[in-house]
Request: fold
Amino acid sequence: MEAISKFPYAHQPVRSISFPPRVHPSCQRVEALLNHLKPHHSQPVSSTTCLEAETIQSDLVVLAELYNCMEELFHSPQTQQALLRYQDGKLVEEALCGSVTLLDTCESARDLLLVLKEHMQNLHSAVRRRKGDSSIESSISAYDSLKKKAKKTIAKQLGQLKRMYNKVNSFSFLEQDQQLAFLARVLREASTITISILHSLLVFLSMPTFGTKGSSLISKLKATVLFSSQKENKNTNGVSDLNNVLCSLLRREKNGEFQRALTVLETLNVNIDGLEGGLDCIFRCLVKHRVSVGDLVRAQKHRASFEKEKNTKRVTMANKFHVRSNSFPTGSHPSTVSVEEELSKLKTWEATSTSSSKSIGIGLSMLADLHICLEDLLNIASTQKLISNHRGEKCMEELLDGSVRILDICGITRDTMLQIKENVQSLHSALRRRKGDSSIEKIIAEYNFFSKKMKKNAKKLITSLKQMESKFGVSPLLNQDQQLVALVRVLREVIVMNMSILQSLLVFLAVPASNSKSTKWLLVAKLMHKRVIACEENQENINELQCVEASLSEGTNVAKMQAAHERLKALENAIESLESGLESVFRRMIKMRAHLLNIMTH
Reply:
């Protein structure tokens, strides 16, 4: 962020169509950041020019600061009044609709980067571990297969971005008011620049495929190298360099190509790390931006609804007291029964669950099923009408706030799981490569340092969840429509269940179950410097993280390292399962919040 503040134009006068500087201090900053991003993203989204990873990463950092400044600007009462004044909030409604596409594209790009990173690590490990071995072809084929699968996803997202770009640029705005003119331009340019940066990232990831395997794979790689060399000056990045070295490895041209391949893979892995971090930051900024814009739209709708109720008091009173039954809305609908059944199953699981990864994985799977049933319920017309009729009320605002907070915690937990997976894989790979080497102690020390930091962060998230749980759902539902009471109760229970399962997962990551028999014996073995007692597979409360830590504390001889290998493999499997379940829940949370926002703003 400090680098951004050193832009030479950051303190230049703002153009005439901008806000007067005295209105809000963020105006000039927003203008400067937009001007910084425009040179890189002035071309239409149909362009196939591939930017370097460092450029995209830098633009993501600036874009995140732009959204933070816009957030400050939109919290100004003058800004909110100006936005809502134009055609009953048309500007913010346009921004709200577009944010769904941006979030979807951002999430897809995050997934692509994650999978690509895993394949880069596998390639790196294969080249470093099995020089000259034909198994390298297998790793390259798997990498090529990934790109074939990613091709359709990228094409779909590029199509969505292009349609949104055309829609944003077709929006005509004729307004003499300087405030409105400035805000309209900021919203439009922020959207087009975000589209362009995401487009550049997807183009960077849309690499050509090689082929299948054997001689066919080599011939495809040769063609790729020729094609890349012809455009080397115009369209080069770390991916094209990787294609070249992979070709050389398969043809076994030079022994030095192995070292070059390692260098290229390490560089590309660093670039992917940077892009992943920038994209995570942008995703959170987009979520906050959508929440802020959604709040403005809801405020406008609530204001309009309030005025309408004042003018039609008789109709309002009739609507207020006309309750046909005491049942849940559309009580006969199968979705209603399904939601209640899934909640009942989860409550049973909660009462009988253990602290093991297997038990938590089951809970995550059941939670995903609950969200699927909830989506069906929110798609019912009568449910949507009920929510829409009561938008702006305190209970609804509480649900929206709870959904975004639980989404944020889930996102952070998701990132933590990814970090654990990466560190465990790196540790496992390092131990396989350097058996008996004294450097193993350094590798173990690095893992232990990460583990302590991770547990500390997990405990902070547990505290946040407990604080949120103590304050959530405290607003009374007195004198409310009984159908509304039933719906709010169910939505509250869903969010509370999310808190409970996330807390179970974080407890698993932070500290193992204190009453676990295996944990006590492992602690004794560690303190007495004796042989680690095996973490048997049939133990109920087994904690794979604790087992690995115990193994690593017992020495670095061959026998100890073999035990560590086995437990690291078990931990990798456990983390893989938990990560998959959490990813499914995270996506469902995003959909649930999007459903609620769309219902309340339309």
Remarks:
- The chain has two domains: 11-131+151-209+275-302, 336-601.
- Confidence is low (pLDDT under 50) at residues 1-22, 210-235, 313-332, 513-534.
- The chain has 19 helices and no strands.
- The CA atoms of residues 424 and 572 lie 7 Å apart.
